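Hey,
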Amino acid sequence: MKWWRLGSLFLFLLVAFFLFKFVNQPGSKPAEKFAYTQKSYSSKRFPVLEYHLISRPEGRWTRTPENFRADLEWLYQNNYYPMNLKDILTGFQGLSAGKTPVVMTFDDSSSSQFRYLADGRVDPDCAVGVIKAFHDKHPFDWPMRATFFIVIGTNNPDRNIFGQKELAEKKLKQLTAWGMEVASHTYWHDRLSKVSPEFARYSLAKSVKVLSDLSGQKIVSLATPMGLYPSDESVFKGEYQKISYDLKLVCEVAGGLQVAPNSPKFNPYHINRIQTISSEWRKFFGRD
């Protein structure tokens, strides 16, 4: 074999050796997307706000459109930034520098949260209408982000996917297009502490399937109705009649400020929330 061939072979083996060493160095593999450490939100706590009706008059489970607009303005002026609940899973990737995340959640999917008027416009006094108007006012600083916990088969037609039955799919697809999160509140607003594990799986699987099919989203978040939890929390992930589901984040009905996802105290099945009533605004934010 000629000397230049030996030299070429030696050079090839040398390059191959160094490539092998580099690729197999610890930590050289791509980082997983589901991570709470690198680039995660680093502050200790953030608010997950809980709304129900957006209507008049103000009440225990009702926030007026005027007060909801004031809530958004106060949050904006105090350097909060809206995110969906599922953004916890990425450590709030995309959070603007110097901002604190705020997750606005809406339970029970009443028409007061999302309503179309007869002329096809979104009602400016429903929750989605208020959010859309505020985004249009601050297009670069306030994206349309919120998480809606939706029920489907209750005995109250106004609470089943925002009422207006013929517009259910249109509404869920519109929320998706605007960047907001569609999430489960069980299928029938079930008290998970009172039903069997099998029935809980049935309700959750059925809810996830319907909401996913109509919205095009992967459903990963749940709020337990009335804050009642099953004795067996394994029902939050599983399969029922060949319908697989995986609810990665589960909200309480109260609890206060939520610890950040990189905290050792973080429990994805017990996300604290703050009810948006005057006493809670005073307690946690010093405002009415």
